[in-house]
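Database export, one record per block. Field names are fixed; values are copied verbatim from the stored entry.
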Amino acid sequence: MTAALLGFAMAAGLALTGVAMVTPPPAVGATSAPAPTGWLHTSGGAILDSNNAPHTIKAASWFGMETPDCMPHGLWGTLTIDDALANIKSMGFNTVRLPFSNECLAATTIKGNLNYWANRAYALEGKTPLVLMDTVIARAKANGLQVILDRHRPSSADQSPLWYTSAYPESKWIADWKMLAARYRNDPTVIGADLHNEPAGAATWGGAAATDWQAAATRGGNAVLAANPNLLIIVEGIENQGNGTSTWWGGGLADVKNKPVTLATPNRVVYSPHDYPASLYAQKWFSDATYPNNLPAVWDANWGYIQKQGIAPVLLGEFGTALQTTSDKQWMEKIVSYLGTNSMSFAYWSFNPNSGITGGLVQADWRTPEAAKLAALAPILKGTPTASPSPSASPTPTVAPSSSATPSPTATPTPSPSPSPVPTSGGSISAVWKLGSSWTGGYVANIEVTGLRAAPGWSVSWPDPNVTRVANSWGINCTVVPKVSVTCTGSDWATKISAGQKLSVGLQVDSLKAPVNPVLTLK
């Protein structure tokens, strides 16, 4: 997957029952410790802030910038960047893991259907995905959050088991990382570089140069630190380990014991496995007779020993579940306990509700928290100090429209290309239906409506043999006949239409498969 780690910040104090405590005056010449700068470093198995106080990264992944949309998902409705980040902060997280693709870094336009009106405070229309990344990072800072940049994919089409492909060679991977490290060199909001998401398949730890992820991570990490020596270098594991065992993509770090990643700049490496429950894949340990009590030993062997033995800190880079089965609930309870007991950092997968198998931390409206998941995470989310500077006030744009929208280890929705839509005319309007994004279980569609004459109302309907419900909409109210059709009428700011007026409205649909250029019925 593409995913997340949780942990605890540590505090020391004294409490004496029934005894009044008086703070003595500071000694002559004594000064209080400076405020943390935001930069982090490591010492043995701990992550420390600039004052050498223990710090636990508690992150949530907000994906989308690694997909063909080249934007964090959910921004196609009335959700704003600040809405999402403030929600993440309120849940108890202190960091956002932000996946991206090299393809999106080079893109000249934001491909997804970002609602520029709802997000007009950020002036993103006509801007590049890289400027959008700048904006997300700036608003994360304003909301008291830090950011881990996650190179999730080379191209936006799919994940790569190795850190390079024929279209995106290692030189491009390193060049883009050097660019990002330099771009945010003076901003401690960006605390870490997750070098490559989920090495798998042929990836090895040592061995042939073409597959040696340990050597590549060393080269990549040194290149990043040459541009910004303050960043944490986050190194994921591999699927097939040197001892003959296999685990999750990115999840195997047993070889670190004999062959750690050693960088020119010390105290920067954080190892980052991924781990998931049986609902994603039936790993052999899920059928063990002692399940779930066998899990801590599995984690110790694959990655937990690294922090326990003081080799380096561990950040569980992805973990998540829909929390629907007994087995998943047992796994969740065990892994939360393991993270808490060992004071490990983590990044939960995901904030997004449109993560196909795991779901997200919010419901399909992109706003309502998933209470059961947050309750399960509560033991490691309580008390969330952050090393970032104090947040500043965030812009709150007033909104006219209304919406939202909803991977397995790291599967993220991929927009499906469809033939060019053709305008349909009928009644008082003409309309073009455009598929925005689609994934297993849903899609986002945008409808461009043009008034042929003034009308107090209008409607659009189309067949959808897989539809179950409309999860959200903006500028329209929609009803469905399950597995038959969708009908939407103009609402709010788009209720009326004038001759020649153009309206852009949209919706998020729960449906097993998105229709391709459906025939529209207009009124």
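Remark 1: Helices lie at 81-91, 102-106, 129-142, 170-183, 213-227, 295-308, 326-341, 371-381.
Remark 2: The chain is about 20% helix and 20% strand.
End of record.
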